[in-house]
Amino acid sequence: MHVDDFDRTSIDHVLTTTRAVRRRLDLDRPVPLDVVRECLEIALQAPNGFNFQRWRWLVITDPSIRAAIAEIYRRVELPAVEALASQVPADDFDTQKVAASSRYLGDHLERVPVHVIPCHAGGLQQDRELFTHLGYDTDLDNMVAASTYAEIWPAAWSFMLALRSRGLGSSLTMIHLGAEPEVARLLDIPDEISQAGLIPVAYFRGEDFRPAPRRPLDEVAFHDRWGQPLTRPATSTSVGPL
Description:
By secondary structure, this protein is an alpha+beta fold. The chain has 9 helices and 5 strands. Strands 1, 2, 3, 4 and 5 form a 5-stranded antiparallel β-sheet that branches. It starts with 7 loop residues before the first helix and ends in a 22-residue tail after the last helix.
């Protein structure tokens, strides 16, 4: 397919309206496992370092296991969300709304029909040992985290976009990682596998989503040097090698 054949309107719509869905998840409508498989097949096309494909995916539909995960999740989530919410001004309604939405998800997590846990084979320690051996003169915490999760986040986002295009909602949460060893024991996850988050999956209720309020591009994007504005060109020009 040639690039001119792409339906950019539909593509841009999915990219700009894929939200973290919590309150609007349809907790009563079953999700066919074939649809989840379809979306994961798409996720496997995501870029990853050296094509190692170190992602792993754990798809959970068993109600008793979902209930056990939800119990652990709530135990870790409650103090964290309360602490964060207490730091948000009462008149910051958008952030307070997110906190309330997060609490709602925790309260109903066991009813979300599918839980997907993206994982990383090898994990942080393996990458740390490699970079230490190479003797890089940098903050290894940042380099290790960036290197490790760069192999899973693009695939996780592709998975969520594929879900969105099929009428399913999702959100990416990491709060259960506060009890990662306990969840690993529950799910028989080997020691060499690191969990990267939890993606609750369900069809969503209501109408379509809209783009969210965001800071203006000129506040967050710079040109050539930090703080130098990325100005809008007077005429459209291509950027490339001279």
